[in-house]
């Protein structure tokens, strides 16, 4: 991948990172205000669960972004972590933190879906 392209993606990733971090901070403010207003317990529990799920998703996303930034540093950005083929540019524009090409990602998704089913069956 060209140096100019890589720095374009680095900018995208940094912007997305700031976006997520900024959102988490704003939500913390909101959370404090709401707790002070004595909302009904059920509603509070629901909100807490929602916040926890959002946080979980954002944490995962931040991890992916940081990993992508690290790949940029190491000159490995845009290469699939599994098959080492170049990841399609279109895919990187949509998901700059993508670590796998579409084909390998699909295999991973199937695998993790199967893991979830197996975990549920085992429970
Ligand atoms: Zn691949």
Gap between N and C termini, in Å?
A: 45 Å
Q: What number is the mean pLDDT? A: 88
Instruction: Give me the number of helical elements.
Output: 4
Query: What's the shape?
Result: flat
Strand content: under 5%
The parts where pLDDT drops under 50 for at least 5 residues are none
What portion of residues is helical? over 70%
Query: Pairing-aware structural class of the strands and helices?
Result: mainly alpha
Q: Main sheet? A: none
Tally of DSSP β-strands:
0
Keywords:
123 residues, mainly alpha, 4 helices, 76% helix, flat, binds zinc ion
What does this protein structure show overall?
With 123 residues, this protein is mainly alpha-helical. It contains 4 helices and no strands. Helix 1 (3-36) packs antiparallel against helix 2. The chain binds zinc ion (ZN). Residues 80, 82-83, 85, 100-101, 103-104 line the site of zinc ion (ZN).
Summarize the structure.
By secondary structure, the chain is an all-alpha fold.
Topology (elements, then pairings):
Elements: H1 3-36, H2 41-73, H3 89-94, H4 102-122
Helix pairs in contact: 1-2
